[in-house]
Amino acid sequence: MKVRLATSRGFCFGVEDAIELAEAAVEEHGPGRVVALGPVIHNKQVVNELEEAGLNQSGDLETIDPSKTVLIRSHGAPPETFQRADERGLRIIDATCVLVKRAQNVVKQLHEEGYHVVMIGDPDHPEVRGVIGYAPNVTVIDEETNLERALPYRERIGIVAQTTHSPEHVADMIAKILKRPYREVKIVNTLCLEVTRRQEAAMELAREVDVMFVLGGLHSANTRELARLCQEAGCDTYHLETWKQFEPSMVEGKQVAGVTAGASTPESVIAQFVGELEAL
After folding, report:
1. How many Å apart are CA 156 and CA 114, to the nearest integer?
2. β-pair partners for 37
3. Do 117 and 181 fall into the same domain?
4. What's the pTM?
5. Is 148 annotated as catalytic?
6. 127, 194, 225, 241: the active-site residue
7. SS3 for 70?
8. Quick one: 108 and 183 in the same domain?
9. Beta-carbon-side half-sphere exposure of residue 106 (alpha carbons within 13 Å)
10. Whether residues 49 and 79 fall in one domain
11. CATH number, domain with residue 129
12. In whole angstroms, what is the distance from residue 43 CA to residue 278 CA?
């Protein structure tokens, strides 16, 4: 089968930095001495490899032994997490993506400037939960939100977005907000350019192939967004974690397959998938 790869795909620099920090921390402190506060990135294969190398994981800061080192995941954490870790005497290694860190700082600055902060994003996503901790009473909205009920009137509002959202989605949400009678609206672009490039490349490829495969963690927001955009481009699309989820029926009657991958997907997963697909 003929396979075409998206020109922009796979690991972004934020993910690479987080993995390198995790590996270096385990090497420095020893296996079992470093605990990640949640999955370092949203990819099972990478997380399993890090755990095999000696990186532990916990979802509760209070259960971590004070003698161990805490690794903050790439999605970041609210300031209360850092404060509590310091109170418990825990050493911290911060693997927060620099663009997520920027979004945190923007939210803090908007609040200090007197804006009511509105974040366009998934309220259950760890990045969003971390970012909104940098200002009180942040309103989080997504495409399912009823703006009339969820967005109280304020004269001045400042808008940011989850870094992995598509520009089209964010623009659509901003347009809906601007229909309301706010006296002043300040918009700060917090989208990740690396993610945007992957989205553009995926949509372009989806319009030229018979079927698209989007590889990456099923819980990865940026990978799910890639799959949604490819589907919207009019191409049959499958979101898979690895080759193990592939079924021959997915390519029945298809001649050319396109492959892309989320920002947390290692090149080894992509290479294996492409090799197996080409061998059909």
Report:
1. 7
2. 58
3. yes
4. 0.89
5. no
6. 127
7. strand
8. yes
9. 23
10. yes
11. 3.40.1010.20
12. 24
